[in-house]
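User: My instructor asked us to take a sequence, write out its structure as tokens, and then describe one feature of it. I'm not sure where to start. Here is the sequence I was given:
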Amino acid sequence: MFIRILIINLSFLIINGSYLLFSEENENAGQLSIDRIFKDKEFSSKRFSARWSDDGKEYFYLKDAEGENKGKEIWAYNLSDGKDKPLVKVANLVPSGSDKPIPIDGYSFSKDKAYVLIYTNSKRVWRSKTRGDYWVLDRGSSEIRKLGGDARASTLQFAKFSPDSNQVAYVRERNIYVEDLLDHSIKPITSDRSKGIINGTSDWVYEEELGLRDGFRWSPDSQAIAYWQFDERSVRKHALVDNVSGLYPKLNSFAYPKVGQRNAICRVGVRYLNSKETVWVKSSDDLRNNYIAKMEWVQGAGGLVIQQLNRAQDKNTLLRVDPGSGKVDPILIEQDEAWVYASNEIYWKDNYNKFTWISDRDGWRHVYSYSSDGKNLKLITPGEFDVIKLLRMDNNEEHFYYIASPENPSQRYLYRVGKDGSGNERVTPDSEIKGTHNYNISPDGSHAIVSSSNAENPPVTKLVTLPDYKVIKVFEDNEKLKKKFNNLKKSPVEYFYVDIGDGHRLHSKCIKPPNFDPNKKYPLLVYVYGEPVGQVVRDSWGGSSHLWHLMLAQHGYIIMSFDNRGSASPRGRDWRKASNGKIGILPPKDQAAAVSKVLDERLYIDAKRVGSWGWSGGGSMSLNAIFKYPDLYKTAIAVASVPNQRHYDTIYQERYMGLPGENQKAYREGSPINFAHQLKGDLLIVHGALDDNCHYQTFEKLVDRLISHNKKFSMMTYPRGTHSIREGKNTTIHLYNLMTDFIKSSL
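Assistant: Let's start with the prediction itself. The structure tokens for your sequence are:
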């Protein structure tokens, strides 16, 4: 009897022990940690990436090789028969004398698909891996050959086939070369030996602020190459000091034009392959103070077209270039009292007699149609909403596809409108999730690869037909990730508006603790960006940063964000350009007004425990918050900030603030360093010593200023850190542990 009871009790203990263990596992599954987010990367989403063929009849994608073979292969999916087939197998990528296939970092096909260009061994240049090795695979003979002759490893950039598939052009150490695919001869297109002359790619500021990296274009007939050239020899240099890579410090000095300083001379040249001379485009008499932001060849007799911004960037001139003489003829001029952007959304139609143009001249960002001479203007997308991005025309040139979200600025949907502006309709079905939908539309407009997500659902990627939206296949549903995410202790993200007065309502979002109790008092942490190129109130899968905010909410913090006036929220021209000449002035004022309003309306927020944090422009905003509103914000974290706007680059800062001589007072009032003496709360400033974008120099100047005012603060330098502060072992984990501990102690 006693033995029987003992067994029963042991079983009970075992059962209960299992129950306790099960409960602990559930507890751990529901609780986020920095290791789970950033080290183990448990919540990383899977994505499917593909590119369309020129005719839109198939798409190409990379696939892991099967069996013992390791590496990536290039496959194609044919829309007509619905079958996948390999185009480049791992065996095709093994060079002579090697037993290992070439890793694929990128690839492209010649127009006739006879050749494949393989990009490998890529190296980072500032933001992106744009320097590496290129190999050409002859699909007929299976021969694979490295381009560049005796070029050093990883020195080629932006290699691309000529339209006739006979040659490849590339940049090698700041000069352009053309290599023949039949006789393998290499011909230099440029031969400048000065390190201060750059051909075929860009200087630092054009890459960072105008997105220019690939700096040359083949003509449609393969007879000429148009290219950017930069002369940065007279641009003042900025130095970065690497103190940890060797016995002595390493100095990296590069041309960086700061606000009000001298720019590089930038011009466009056209070199015909049968000529030894470059035809220089006569775009301006002042090549240093005008920016050539975009360039493209137009089929037929269209010639070359460039977009030129004046230094103030309140005027964009579309110019047609005669490639034989270099003479230019203005097609149209886009002007704005604030600023204008160069257009990435020009599509030529009606046998290249018309083109699309983006403008917010009527108060909203809309698509217009112009005749090729810049006349016969027609509004294509009328209405009080912003076209966020024009994507494509369909194959018959009868409709335009574009992204918009008229009702909710945090979301993104696909729309379609007739070429004459009629029949405007939403294509994304109501049955799809509410949130953000990103589209990669086929060249003929018949299909799209769409990735859909929101703050509560990771991306689902699928192939659909257009415009009827029939689902052909699902590439990735991230179902396992969704289940793991749903097991977390969390509250749903709340989206709302904050009325800050004078008719201004900021679109906002809030993350509350999982077991929220309105009768308790919670600290508030505001995540901010606030500059004209960003929007933080987005209903999309947020990745690691969103998960970190959820983790903080699990620890009892309320996390909010507000899109102030002057942010990139699609709410019309006046909203987006409200901060013109007032960067660092109006945005932090709006942020403070929003915080004050939610403190009045939401009594569960502890007014004595309010903090702000941000990165880059958001770091500058957090400095302005705690310096300018010291009685409102108890704490702030500023990562990779710009304490003094005078230290930032010409193209970005002058676009929104003008030249310092014209707006000197605003430059002073918008720079947080000038208000450091007002610091009362807890401040943590973080910077990477090798940040080429927002320089460590201005971080040290802020440190010096705070010391001069005898202010207490915390600081952290990451010796290997660039602007992203991800370089070096455990850097990301260290940074987020640092910020988490600081928030816990200060709030």
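For the description part of your assignment, you could build on this observation: The radius of gyration is 28 Å. Try explaining in your own words what that tells you about the chain.
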